[in-house]
TrEMBL record:
GO biological process: gluconeogenesis; glyceraldehyde-3-phosphate biosynthetic process; glycerol catabolic process; glycolytic process
Pathway: Carbohydrate degradation; glycolysis; D-glyceraldehyde 3-phosphate from glycerone phosphate: step 1/1; Carbohydrate biosynthesis; gluconeogenesis
GO molecular function: triose-phosphate isomerase activity
Organism: Coleophoma crateriformis
Domain of life: Eukaryota
Name assigned to this protein: Triosephosphate isomerase
Length: 249
């Protein structure tokens, strides 16, 4: 079974009511590859605005969700609150949260479990630092981040794995097609070993890190790259070219 191409747009802490409405109306009017699953992740404050304006068929992700159902957790958002707002996906484990906000593997795993148990799809981010890559630890780091989740979650059918080397995020320094393919293939091997053939064949593994309308066409030709998680370029018209890059696969 061919895996459906998946493109996520992570707006991070960018945008305003006006600019997000503008991006959405651009996406609504654009001719998008109907075979690509498209999910945008605006800041939490704009999730409802996005759901109200984005056309059906295009989905919305939160950039984070908490692992507790409700209560005294100032600043957090629950899985049920996302569902109540028709938000169907969440990002989890983004390196900016792992590094800046010090989220560890166990916390990312607990949040992934809570989201999936509540019926929310998870774009699960993993990736190594430059130091880890240079010391040959890339595969070890990435698989140990995934292993923490596999200890709590057996059904990965609503997980999309986003491989995002930290050194490529927002730096303009994209991983080469070979570097990206090598890690994606290793992740697929790991899925096969830990979770079986079916999970390995069906799980989408997308690449993130300085993806642009220029480099996406070569990256998407790689057999284990099933789409992209796009930061900076998702705020620009170029996002449409990235969504449609699959057409040249
Ligand atoms: O979530 C998206 C990634 O962090 C990539 O961001 P970027 O495309 O700006 O490098």
């Amino acid at each position: 079974m061919a895996r459906q191409f998946f493109v996520g747009g992570n707006f991070k802490m960018n945008g305003s009511v006006e600019s997000i409405k503008k991006i959405i109306s651009y996406l609504n009017d654009a001719k998008l590859d109907p075979n690509t699953e498209v999910v945008i992740a605006p800041p939490a404050l704009y999730l409802l605005l996005a759901r109200e304006h984005l056309k059906p068929g295009l989905e919305i992700a939160a950039q984070n969700v908490f692992d507790k159902p409700n209560g005294a957790f100032t600043g957090e958002i629950s899985v049920d609150q996302l569902k109540d707002s028709n938000i169907t996906w969440t990002l989890l484990g983004h390196s900016e949260r792992r590094v800046i906000l010090q989220e560890d593997d166990a916390f990312v795993a607990a949040k992934t479990k809570a989201a999936l148990d509540g019926g929310i799809g998870v774009i699960l981010c993993c990736g190594e630092s430059l130091e880890q890559r240079e010391s040959g630890k890339t595969i070890e780091v990435v698989t140990s981040q995934l292993k923490a989740v596999a200890e709590q979650v057996k059904d990965w059918s609503k997980i999309v794995i986003a491989y995002e080397p930290i050194w490529a995020i927002g730096t303009g320094k994209v991983a080469s097609t070979e570097q990206a393919q090598e890690v994606h293939a290793a992740i697929r091997q790991w899925l096969k070993k830990e979770l079986g053939d079916k999970t390995a064949e069906e799980t989408r593994i997308i690449y993130g890190g300085s993806v642009s309308e220029k480099n996406c066409k070569d990256l998407c030709k790689q057999p284990d790259i099933d789409g992209f998680l796009v930061g900076g370029a998702s705020l620009k018209p170029a996002f449409v070219d990235i969504i449609n890059s699959h057409l040249c696969k």
